Amino acid sequence: MRDATLSVHHPAVSHDGYAALSVPTHRASTIVFDDAAAYASRGKRDLDGYSYGLHGTPTQRVLEAQLTALEGGARTVLMPSGQASIAVIFLTVLNPGDHVLIPDTAYPPVTNFCRDFLAPRGIDWTVYPPGIGARIAAMIRPETRLIWTESPGSTTMEVEDIPAIAAIARDRGILTGIDNTWATPLLFKPLAHGIDFSMQALTKYPGGHSDLLMGSVTVGDLDLRRRLRDTMRMLGLGVAPDAVALVLRGIETMAVRLAHVGRVATDLAQELHDRGAGEVLFPALPTSPGHDLWARDFAGSSGLFSVVLPAGAEARLEAALDGLKVFAIGASWGGTRSLMAPMSVAQARRHDHPRNGRTILRVNVGLEDPQDLRTDLAAFFDALG
Ligand SMILES: *Cc1c(COP(=O)(O)O)cnc(C)c1O
């Protein structure tokens, strides 16, 4: 063969004696076939197999299998982001004329998706209060096809009675899904509590280093996996092998990171409660709403909590944030760095609550020395006055 040909034909080398602990990153768009018959029958390959890079390489299959094992499911699909995961679940289950229930504490882009994308296409939605539990039965309509949950909820951290909601839905043949990003499957296993779609933003704790975007959905039913993959194929959604490799790296330390930030967050949240910094919203604290459900259903706590700032604190908030030395100002979470973000839920919430009009500070505990975090928090709340 001539040089140009040799340049694009990679020589086969021996793998004998090669055993690494890391998962190889297989990058591929094109996948080739051993013979004409294999090519002709490629459409019959099962969904765990390989046909085109968009549908996964062995690197992706390893992460899918690892998440499936952690979730106690049958299969996992990977999506380009957490939000894409939620959108694909909704688009898979809901057709024009159908109805979906979402919690008042849903990740805000979910509410926007229902209002600005699904509703104009004839899919109706209703917002339920997150404390509803079994009373969700009264909000179910004949055309309800999906009940979405998120626990603890965004910003205000209400814990939902997932087993009660899942039991009502199952009775009526309605599918359920959860945004389990706060807990990850290490701290809460949705499928064991009767949920059909267990979704998490891998962007947060599994990635763990604030440098990638990805989401996952694990199901216990192969037909639901097939339907999710059909939607993804229609929309042309896939994930990049390099990002998958980063999640595979992050997930190896996730249990240790979560145990650490859960412990430090519990200490810091308790100290803020004790100093009267404001109402602390963190289900691990006995004084926090949802503590009993959390203690019943969760194996522990992660490192994200909220503090309802005292009325009038807004006047000094900017200066207090600008004075931070260790915490960075930012809204995402689950990485190595501690973050603070002031939030307002007033525009987003349908159901009244006295704290809706207040500024709520969201705190993500990272991996810095807890004493440095404690000092920074104390200075912050001193500055708020
Ligand atoms: C970050 C987040 C998402 C979205 O994940 P992306 O990967 O950023 O799209 C969804 N739900 C919750 C609770 C989140 O915190």
UniProtKB/TrEMBL annotation:
Protein name: Cystathionine beta-lyase
EC number: 4.4.1.8
Family: Belongs to the trans-sulfuration enzymes family.
Gene Ontology molecular functions: cysteine-S-conjugate beta-lyase activity; pyridoxal phosphate binding
Keywords: Lyase, Pyridoxal phosphate
Entry superkingdom: Bacteria
A biological-process GO annotation: transsulfuration
Chain positions with N6-(pyridoxal phosphate)lysine modification: 204
InterPro entries: Cys/Met-Metab_PyrdxlP-dep_enz, Cys_b_lyase_bac, PyrdxlP-dep_Trfase, PyrdxlP-dep_Trfase_major, PyrdxlP-dep_Trfase_small
Taxonomic source organism: Mesobaculum littorinae
Repressor is among the record's keywords: no
The protein's required cofactors: pyridoxal 5'-phosphate
One of the Pfam families matching this protein, by short name: Cys_Met_Meta_PP
Gene: metC
Catalytic activity: L,L-cystathionine + H2O = L-homocysteine + pyruvate + NH4(+)
